[in-house]
Amino acid sequence: MRIAPTGSKHENGDSEMEIETSRLLLRSWTESDSEAFAKINSDSTVMRYFPSVYSRDRSDEMMQLCNTEMERFGFSFWALERKDTGALIGLTGLHNFDAELQFCPCVEIGWRLARSQWGKGFATEAARESLMLGFSEFKIESIYAFTTLENMPSRAVMSKIGMVDTGDNFKHPNVPAESGLQDHCLYKITKTEWLKNSC
């Protein structure tokens, strides 16, 4: 992994980062990402475990919110780019999540990839780097992941990166009951567990 400053500064004085893995670049969002990201978010297959696809405006708003969160905390959901093609293929990263739930406030890890990029190990590769950053760079003690119960592909990634199903299923307050997707599972990994897995 290589972490390179891009020049601008966060409120805590740290430079923005580009995170490089063997095949991927995790970075801040740019205007040129808008069309590709909107295409991912409007794909009903990609978004089948969400209540609905995103409009172009909502997709653009998410990009801006991620960059704003990066400026404030140093992390968020980063744009995910393939190094060999330079193409935006989705997102991955960490997000401060809060709701009236027992485990909140918390830091969650998440990912979303274009359908053409599935089955290549990109989500797992990017998620592992996100965990490393969360625990090593940002000194987070516990990281959570959650998704609807039926989302077995994402649950498989959670397990691959060392997260454990807590068994504490919950109803997501931001997901409409009529969507049939409100029931969520909760996965977790602590810094201590991550260090043990990394040895």
Describe the structure in your own words:
With 199 residues, the protein is of the alpha+beta class. It has a single domain, classed as 3-Layer(aba) Sandwich (Aminopeptidase). It contains 5 helices and 10 strands, in the order E-E-E-H-H-E-E-E-H-E-H-E-E-E-H. The strands form 2 sheets. The chain has a 6-stranded antiparallel sheet with strand order 1-2-3-4-5-6, with helices on both faces. Helix 1 (34-41) packs across helix 2 (56-73).
Q: Report Rg.
A: 16 Å
Number of domains: 1
Mean pLDDT: 93
CATH domain class name:
Alpha Beta
What is the ordering of alpha helices and beta strands? EEEHHEEEHEHEEEH
Indicate the low-confidence ranges by residue numbers. Answer: 1-15
What global shape is seen?
globular
How far apart lie the N and C ends?
17 Å
By DSSP (H or I, 4+ residues per run), the number of helices equals: 5
CATH architecture title: 3-Layer(aba) Sandwich
CATH topology: Aminopeptidase
Structural class given helices, strands, pairing?
alpha+beta
What is the fourth-level CATH superfamily? Gcn5-related N-acetyltransferase (GNAT)
Count the E strands.
Answer: 10
Largest sheet: 6 strands, antiparallel
Helix content: 25-40%
